[in-house]
Amino acid sequence: MKTLIIYGSRRGTTKYCAELIHKTLGEESSVVDVKSKDTKSYLENCEQIIVGANAFNFKLNKDIRSFITRHLSTILEKKVFLYICCGAEGGKATLSLYKDSNIVKWVSTIHNNLEGTIDDHYECKK
Prior knowledge:
Radius of gyration: 13 Å
Mean pLDDT: 76
Oligomer: single chain
Helix content: 40-55%
Distance between the termini: 26 Å
Number of domains: 1
CATH topology: Rossmann fold
Shape: globular
Order of helices and strands: EHEHEEHEHHE
Number of strands: 6
CATH superfamily: Flavodoxin domain
CATH class: Alpha Beta
């Protein structure tokens, strides 16, 4: 497995997007719910990570926040991609997330490993 797609989802949209990414990348990727007990073994055996999270009330999914905090040193050894699903539109979504100081800190910390970002509004409907 080259790519780990790990996600935290509140209502299923982030999971749905993770599955779409996995379908696109194929067999060399694995999709894992952040609540899974095996996240550490998946994390250790991948070359790159795609982290997906929902944002609610201007905060990133608590399980993803916890995962990033617990495994930051391992994450820093990988290429990292990040996607966030939320109900706010376009720039409002991006600005709202900067209210969560942990997001700013994590993105600043992993910036050198961050391979891709999309700062735009896309609809991913189930």
